[in-house]
Amino acid sequence: MSKSDLEKRTVMSPDGEPIEINPLQDYFCDARPKVHEPVLPIFEKFLNWARSESLWVLGFGTGCGAIEMRPLMTPRFDAYRFGIQWRPTPRQSSVFIISGYLSVKTLKRVIRSYEQMQNPKFVIALGSCTINGGMYWDSYNTIKRLDHYLPVDVYIAGCMPRPEAILAGFEKLKELIRQGKGEGANLYAQNFDWYKANQKKIIKDWDMPDYNW
Amino acid sequence: MIMNTPLDNIKTVFPNADVWTQRQELYHMSIPKEQLVALVTHLKEVEGYLHLVQLTAVDWIEKNQFQLTYILNNPIKKIDVMVKTFIPRDNPTMETIHHLWEQAATYQRELREMFGINFPGSPRVDKPFILEGWDDIPPYRRDFDTKKYAEETYFPRPGRETHDPKEFMKKKLYPDEI
Which of A35, A74, A75, B86 has the fewest CB atoms within 10 Å distance of its CB? Predict the structure, then answer.
């Protein structure tokens, strides 16, 4: 790869149309998130049932609780029998498990990953660290309340919760989704400015777009 | 059984070094800041202390000093040696040792961030390591109030309080007898 490959230039598309490309620019949509209005209630009920039976989890272990995911997905506890599976990319997942403490550096990556997930999306927070800081209650680098930065659907208490507790939390999440209460993404869109203000208060070198997907 | 201790050679080469023994396989050395890199080089190249176990710092705020501790290991003789030096707390600067051990650059980067000790010439020493965009005083310094900073910054959840168990149960079980 030479330096000229990185320069802004016009190339011809296969259809013969000239296209301007800039290889150093990130291409993403930074429009503000929108609230998705529900469709007809009966359809929404069916969609919610379908969503609740197919929870795809983003495989992003943010803290110590990531170690509880391994027994959960392997044959002993086998979450796959409940329609829960792990995916390697935010584009394919609908559930984000915040597994334990979040440092500010990780929170930055978590926000970017969360915003890249498709609607509807749900957040499960594990452990006491996400509720009030837990054992890191006086730490200089660990957040205390996750719900100030992301909309949380289900909290699972414990330090760390066992895989059985996480399965129970998933059952609770399914219940909430079927009742039409899994509205985290819409909540995020409605209170977007409040969430962004909180995030920017602690992420001092904000060098990413406000919203990206 | 160790017949030839590392003490004998060191005192002849570095008369300024202060050496004492904690155990048969653990020695301490203290040396002025200017001669530290020479001593560490001598230990690595001549005495066979090939392994840098750790490089860490202690904040002696009462003496207005930082203590730097280099823990070295001799993998053949199975001996550890802790080389200590003191640097002033105001505008702390130390010579880098990344030319001896490459991994020292990571320790030095961390010390730069957590204690504010500068190591000029160390690779990537100015890049943020864990704290991105930190604008307060370095958090491992003892005059940094961690609890106050956390409470001001991270939205503490109300209701977190502690009770003395004896007083609390007394009040709960015998509310009249106070």
Answer: A75
For residue B26, is it within any domain? yes
Q: Is B162 part of any domain?
A: no
Q: What pLDDT is stored for residue A4 in this prediction? A: 80
* Fold adopted by A41-189: Rossmann fold (3.40.50)
Query: Above 60 in pLDDT, residue A208?
Result: yes
Q: What confidence score (pLDDT) does residue A49 get?
A: 94
CA distance B37 to B122: 14
Task: Answer yes or no: do B155 and A145 touch at CB < 8 A.
Answer: yes
Please tell me which of the candidates B130, B131, B157 has its beta carbon nearest to residue A144.
B157
Q: Is B57 contained in some domain?
A: yes
Q: What pLDDT is stored for residue B155 in this prediction? A: 87
**Residue in B closest to A143 by C-alpha:** B154
Q: Name the residue in chain B with its Cα closest to that of A204.
A: B133
Could you list the residue range(s) of the whole structural domain that residue B110 is in?
Answer: 6-130
For residue A8, the model assigns a pLDDT of 87
Q: Are A115 and A195 in contact (CB under 8 A)?
A: no
* pTM score: 0.83
Checking if the pLDDT of A127 tops 50, the result is yes
**B146–A105 C-beta distance less than 8 A:** no
In angstroms, rounded to a whole number, what is the distance separating the alpha carbons of residues A133 and A153? 18
Q: Do A142 and B154 touch (CB under 8 A)?
A: yes
Domain range summary for chain A, segments of one domain joined by +: 41-189
Contact A104 B132 (CB under 8 A): yes
At A122, the amino acid letter reads F
Q: How many domains does chain B have?
A: 1
Rounded CA-CA distance B64/B55 in Å is: 20
- Looking up residue B93, the CATH number of its domain turns out to be 3.30.460.80
Nearest CA in chain B to A128: B157
Instruction: Spell out which residues of chain A touch residue B147, defining contact as CB-CB under 8 Å.
Output: 138
Mean pLDDT of the residues in chain A: 90
Pick the residue from chain B with its C-alpha nearest to A138.
B147
The pLDDT value given to residue B4: 58
Q: Which of B140, B148, B155, B162 to mutate against chain A (most A CBs within 10 Å)?
A: B155
Mean pLDDT of B44-67: 94
**pLDDT number for residue B8:** 73
